């Protein structure tokens, strides 16, 4: 978990903690995806920083996975491992509800 200013969010990341107003009312729940539109709305209500689960989007993680396994295309074990990692990351990304 990292706490970062809204101005530094690039790509879609997930909220690590609920965002509440000064009265304690829920603004946005843990696990919500901070898209560009959501970030804009949070800025409008005065939110300055948020705790995020990861500063890397799923796409960035998958791109890094592809790069890491480059050169192992003929190794069945390595390709099975890459498929398993990709599947788990995609399932985790789709299991957390969006706002």
User: Do you know the CATH topology of the largest domain?
Assistant: Molybdopterin biosynthesis moea protein, domain 2
What low-confidence regions span 5 or more consecutive residues with pLDDT below 50? none
How would you describe the shape? elongated
Query: Helix share of residues?
Result: 40-55%
Question: What keywords describe this structure?
Answer:
two-stranded antiparallel ribbon, single chain, 99 residues, 6 strands, Molybdopterin biosynthesis moea protein, domain 2, alpha+beta
Task: Give an overview of the whole structure.
- Helix content is 41%, strand content 17%.
- It has 99 residues and is of the alpha+beta class.
- It folds into 2 domains: 2-52, Alpha-Beta Complex (Molybdopterin biosynthesis moea protein, domain 2); 58-95.
- The protein has a two-stranded antiparallel ribbon with strand order 1-6.
Write the layout of secondary structure elements.
Elements: E1 2-5, E2 13-14, E3 19-20, E4 26-28, E5 33-34, H1 36-44, E6 49-52, H2 58-69, H3 76-95
Antiparallel strand pairs: 1-6, 2-5, 3-4
């Amino acid at each position: 978990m990292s706490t970062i200013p809204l101005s530094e969010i690039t790509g879609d990341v997930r909220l690590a903690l609920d965002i509440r107003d000064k009265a304690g009312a829920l603004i946005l729940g843990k696990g919500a995806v901070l898209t560009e539109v959501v970030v804009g709305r949070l800025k409008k209500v005065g939110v300055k920083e948020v705790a995020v689960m990861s500063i890397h989007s799923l796409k960035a993680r998958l791109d890094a996975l592809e790069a890491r396994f480059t050169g192992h295309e003929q190794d069945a074990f390595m390709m099975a491992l890459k498929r398993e990692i990709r599947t788990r990351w995609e399932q985790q990304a789709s299991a957390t509800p969006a706002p």
